[in-house]
């Protein structure tokens, strides 16, 4: 089982192993593979907050990613076991901002992703819609669970070149 530092993100959402076709020309996990792992982690989070496949079919509600930021910390290699933990940073009636961290089997952080997600009603194009009662309750509970955790220093930082 993958271990990770619980104080950083207490909700385990996804585990995987680095596949051969995720390896790039530098011999480690390709940047697109990190995005794929974090995307699948959000899919798993959806299951935990009342937006699983059955709920999406029943309500016509889903979510879309508005923004995604990837932070690379250390390379992952083929065959390595990885796990993703999630922390809800904030949410309102239609959006949530999450912090996802990717850990190896020793609990060392390999990468992180900050994402802004939007609740949508599917149909003739996706349009923003409030969370269902069940999802709102799940997000409220998750936020309460995560409220005492410090904000990750990289959260909200964006991309910039430091000038010397």
- Point out poorly predicted stretches: 1-9
Beta content comes to 25-35%
Question: If helices are DSSP runs of H or I spanning 4 or more residues, what is the number of helices?
Answer: 3
Helical/strand content category: alpha+beta
Total tally of structural domains: 1
InterPro entries: HotDog_dom_sf (IPR029069)
Protein name: Acyl-CoA thioester hydrolase
GO molecular function: hydrolase activity
Keywords: Hydrolase
Give an overview of the whole structure.
Keywords: Hydrolase. It holds the Pfam family 4HBT_2. This is Acyl-CoA thioester hydrolase. GO terms for molecular function: hydrolase activity. By secondary structure, the chain is of the alpha+beta class. It has one domain (11-146): Roll (Thiol Ester Dehydrase, Chain A), CATH 3.10.129.10. Helix content is 24%, strand content 34%. It contains three helices and six strands, in the order βααβββββα. It has helices at 31-48, 53-59, 133-146, and strands at 11-17, 61-72, 81-91, 95-104, 109-121, 127-128. Strands 1, 2, 3, 4, 5 and 6 form a six-stranded antiparallel beta sheet that branches. It starts with 10 loop residues before the first strand and ends in an 18-residue tail after the last helix. The model is unreliable at 1-9 (pLDDT under 50).
């Amino acid at each position: 089982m993958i271990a990770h530092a619980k104080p950083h993100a207490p909700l385990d959402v996804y585990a995987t192993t680095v596949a051969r076709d995720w390896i790039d020309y530098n011999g480690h996990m390709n940047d697109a593979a990190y995005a794929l792992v974090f995307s699948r982690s959000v899919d798993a989070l959806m299951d935990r907050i009342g937006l699983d496949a059955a709920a999406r079919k029943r309500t016509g509600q889903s979510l879309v990613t508005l923004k995604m930021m990837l932070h690379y910390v250390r390379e992952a290699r083929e065959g390595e076991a990885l796990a993703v933990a999630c922390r809800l940073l904030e949410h309102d009636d239609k959006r949530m901002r999450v912090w996802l961290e990717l850990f190896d089997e020793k609990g060392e952080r390999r990468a992180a992703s900050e994402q802004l997600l939007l609740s949508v009603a599917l149909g003739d194009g996706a349009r923003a819609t409030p969370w269902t009662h069940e999802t709102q309750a799940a997000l409220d509970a998750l936020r309460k669970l995560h409220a005492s955790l410090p904000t990750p220093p990289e959260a909200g930082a964006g991309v910039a070149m430091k000038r010397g």
